[in-house]
C-alpha cells in the first residue's frame, strides 16, 4: 500500500509538510522515529556483557577433549574442564543440578493479606454473603407464594361471580317463561275456567295447611 498516495488523496501536501491543509506549524512535519536497541543495552541503559560466552566455551572444551584415535572407542581426555567443576561441586546444587549455582535467587513477592486476615476474614465474608443470599431467596419465595395465592383467590372470585350471574340469568328466564305462560293461559281461558283454577289452587293451599296442622298436633313417641 502506498501510504503517501493515500495521505495525498486525503489532502496532504506532501513530504516536509504537516497534515494541516494550510499551516505547517500545526502538527508534525517529520515522522516519529522509533528507537532501536543496537548496543546491547537493556532496562536502565546498562550494557549487557555478551563477550564471555562461558557456556559455549565449556561445551567446546569438552568436545575438543574427545579422543577418537582408537578405532571404535571415544575417550574423554579433559577431566578438569568448566563443566566438570560444576558437576563435581558440593552443596545443594551439585551433579545434574549444578548449573543452578550460576543463578541468583530473587526475593519472593509478598501478598497483600496477612495470614490472620487471609484465614479469618474470608470465611466471615463468605458467611455474610451466604446469609444475605439466603434471606433474599426466602423473601423471593414468600413473594411468589403471595402472588400465587392472590391469583388463586381472584380466580375463585371470578368463577363464583360467573356462577352467580348464570344462576340469576336462569331464574330470570324461568320467571319470564312462567309469566308468559300464565299470561297466555289467562288470555285463552274463559271466566268459568279461571274460577275453577282459582278454586283448585285454593283447595291445594287448604290441603297443605291441614297437613301441616296434623303434623304439628300429632303425638310424639319417645324412642328412649
TrEMBL record:
It comes from Lasiosphaeria hispida. Residues 110-224 are annotated as: Disordered. Residues 139-155, 196-210 have a biased composition (Basic residues). Residues 156-170, 177-195, 211-224 have a biased composition (Basic and acidic residues). This is G-patch domain-containing protein.
